[in-house]
Amino acid sequence: MERPLTMSLDSFFRPRSVVLVGASDKSAWSQLIHGNFAKMGYSGEVHLVNKRGAPAHGRDAVTSCAQLPGPADLAYIFVPTDAVAEAVADVAAAGIRNALILSSGYAETGDAGGAAQDALVAAATAGGLRFIGPNSLGFVNFTDAVPVTPIPVADGWQRGQVAIVSQSGATTQVIASFAQQQGIGLSYAIATGNEADIHTADVVAFLASDPATRVIALFAETIKDPAAFRAAAQAVRAAGKALVVLKVGRTELATKLAQAHTGSVTGDDRIFDAVCAQDGVIRVGSLEELVTTAGVLVHTGPVDGGVGIVSISGGACEIIADAAEDHGLSLPAFAPDTVAALQAVIASYGATFNPLDVTGAAIRDPSMFETMLRIIADDPAIALTACVYDVPRRLEDYVDRNSLGRIGAGLSAGKTPGLLINQALMPITPPVQALIAELGIPAAAGGLDLVVRALAAAQRLARGGRTKAAAESIDTGARPASEREALDYLEGKGVSTPPRVCAPTAGEAVAAWRTMGCPVVLKIASPAILHKSDIGGVRLDLNDEAAITAAFDEIMAAARKAHPDAPIEGCLVMAMRPKGTELFVGTARSAWGPVIAVGLGGVWIEALADTSLRLLPIDETEAEAMLGELRGSRLLDGYRGQPTADRAAIARQIKAIGDAALGLGPDLVALEVNPLLVRGPEVEALDALAVWEDR
Questions:
Q1: CB-count exposure of residue 249 (10 Å: 0-12, 13-18, 19+)
Q2: Residues 572-585 pLDDT 10s
Q3: Could you tell me the CA-to-CA distances from 357 to 320, 372, 443, 578, 599 in Å, in that order?
């Protein structure tokens, strides 16, 4: 059951009073939840409710929320599943408008649990109650010291600007613990559970406007409301913040297109990649990358330019160079003035590449670190400097304070405060953090591959996505069924197509050939026969009367044999085109909205699945970028004697096809052009197919 979020979540996540429904000394949940309030020093009121009104945790309790001095800001319900409905009714009747439900046994257990969960939502709605859960381990508001959760709050917990949101409570704990281990302070850690009412998107939207949060780290198993998620992601971007997402559950698009290719090349997961690219979301592949990327971004923000790296290790330079190539991190070559300045400092056997190996000479003269970092920071192409040099694991270990202090001074001198990179992922304990701060090092993170990925994400964040509203299909009333009708429709929308005539008889096919004055192609014309080649319904390169007549008769016979009941209009006679590069352009529906795919056409769309995806609508710039993302993109650049393609012309046709698909309305399942023939500046749709809901 979907409900729009019509109220602020401020009182939910910043409650001044909390009631624990199910409080009991015998309940492990209750012990953990209540203990966290004392540990964090919560300054608000905590009330206890249980059926018997029995004291708990050394405090008095009441039997009903109605007996409280007034409505609490938030109720946490952790009673047995069969008592949840009664507890929800009691909470709502007492005028409490926000609740967390820890109790499980709902949609996660199957159909019966799903029905119970729907009933829970209905009861909450009737009582004016909004809730997170069921099956939610609650949240910690680190900024205001509000721990409404059984997850143990770590000793030495740190406030910061990274908010964690996770559908899995156990994973919330893992992410939060790892972040604190890495010295990354948190603003929130929120477990959303089953999301029967308040969704991930609602929480992300709240954090987009939260002044204490700069980066949101999201672990998602599913996205329940794609439109709301996109709106929340765009709100994060508009607020100048970052959304980093680890999404699991890589599945195929739920709706398979029985007679079209597009469904097999636009899986749910690839569509989510396109959403991330268009809405400026940073997608990562592991929990370690999620935390490291969030920690780096909270320090650097968007990096609008290249990264210059100095390293004490030549091996680390090589690892970084390879990782930068893999993950798209821009490490620009140093400008001539930068090179000259570096050569005046570096050892005679050193080189001035980026990343820069300072060599062992820096051990003898640590001032080289500071000097080189300052020189690199002045390079016009460098927006951020970084230094590879491991901090100690413990203060008891050897600490080269001179080298680290020089590195700190050099990193702080850049346009943006720089970053110290540990070669391997290691804990950054509070004592080590204090040492880093004392020595003037702006921030530290590790290991090499994770930090390279994070810095590449910071550069992508600076380039940004394209914020736009989700596409709406506007039904123009057109409903092309056959190839002829689809091509006619596309032509009317600005898509180039070859001359063609639908010929009911062989004689009319011959007459069409004579009018065109060039070799022709014959194809069976029937709205019921989608894949014509499979039944022998296509003949190519026909250029005399006898051949055209014979081909017409053979095609008609093959079609009637394969589809005896199909309506047949005759043959489509189309001007034959010289060979060129064949592309595929297709649209499909998805939970995220209409999607467009571009790839190599003909049989290669199935054989290689080399495609690029975007959500519609797109502009010509995006369409041209899609071409550049194809592994086979070089085929457009004069490969093996083919004329060099006009990519701008192709992009105009791709955009026109996408716009045409939107004009066919919501009943369109897919619109395909295969192939879109490209030969130098010429771009034409040679075949088209529309698939409808009722077909």
A1: exposed
A2: 999 999 988 899 99
A3: 11, 10, 21, 54, 42
Going by pLDDT thresholds of 50, 70 and 90, the confidence category of residue 310 is: very high
pLDDT higher for 573 or 631? 573
Contacts for 533 with CB less than 8 Å, ≥ 6 apart = none
- CB atoms < 10 A from the CB of 337, how many? 12
Of 255, 306, 334, the C-alpha closest to 456 is 306
- pTM for the structure as a whole: 0.88
Judge whether 342 and 334 are in contact, CB under 8 Å. Answer: yes
Rounded to 5°, the CA angle 208-214-219 comes to 75
Cα first-last separation, the chain: 29
Single out the residue of 407, 421, 491, 472 nearest to residue 450, CA to CA.
421
Residue-wise pLDDT for 59-96, tens only, equals: 999 999 999 999 999 999 999 999 999 999 999 999 99
Q: Is 523 helix (H, G, I), strand (E, B) or coil?
A: strand
Hunting for tokens 């083919």 — which residue is that?
Answer: 642
Collapsing DSSP to helix, strand or coil, 405 comes out as helix
Answer whether 439's CB lies under 8 Å from 431's CB. Answer: no
Could you tell me the two tokens for 362? 């820096």
Whole-angstrom distance, CA of residue 678 vs CA of residue 670:
22
- For residue 414, pLDDT over 90 is answered with no
CB 385 within 8 A of CB 417: no
Do residues 130 and 190 lie in contact, with contact meaning Cβ atoms separated by under 8 Å? no
Residue 513 has pLDDT above 80, yes or no: yes
41 has pLDDT over 60: yes
Confidence of residue 255 (pLDDT cuts 50, 70, 90): very low
- Structure tokens of 218? 């999201």
pLDDT higher than threshold 70 for residue 258 = no
**Chain CA centroid to CA 390, Å:** 32
Structure tokens belonging to residue 514: 């004579």
Number of residues in the chain: 695
Give the type of residue at 274: A
DSSP symbol at 9: S
Check residue 470 and report its DSSP letter: P
Residue among 675, 681, 691 nearest 540 (CA): 675
Average pLDDT over residues 338-361: 85
Q: Which residue has the tokens 């980093």?
A: 244
Assess contact for 688 and 481: CB atoms under 8 A: no
Residues 418, 412 contacting (CB under 8 angstroms): yes
DSSP states along 253-297: -SS--TT-SHHHH--HHHHHHHHHHHHT-EE-SSHHHHHHHHHHH
pLDDT at 7: 55
* Residue 688, beta-bridge partner list: 673
Query: What is the number of other CB atoms lying within 10 angstroms of the CB of residue 397?
Result: 9
CA distance 490 to 683: 13
State pLDDT tens for residues 479-501: 998 899 999 999 999 999 999 99
pLDDT 10s digits, 144-187: 999 999 999 988 889 999 999 999 989 999 999 999 999 999 99
Average pLDDT value over all residues in the chain: 90
Rounded CA-CA distance 659/655 in Å is 6
**Which pair of tokens denotes residue 114?**
């799903």
Whole-angstrom Cα distance, residue 636 to residue 650? 10
| 3-state SS, residue 330 | coil
Structure token digits, residue 375: 């020189």
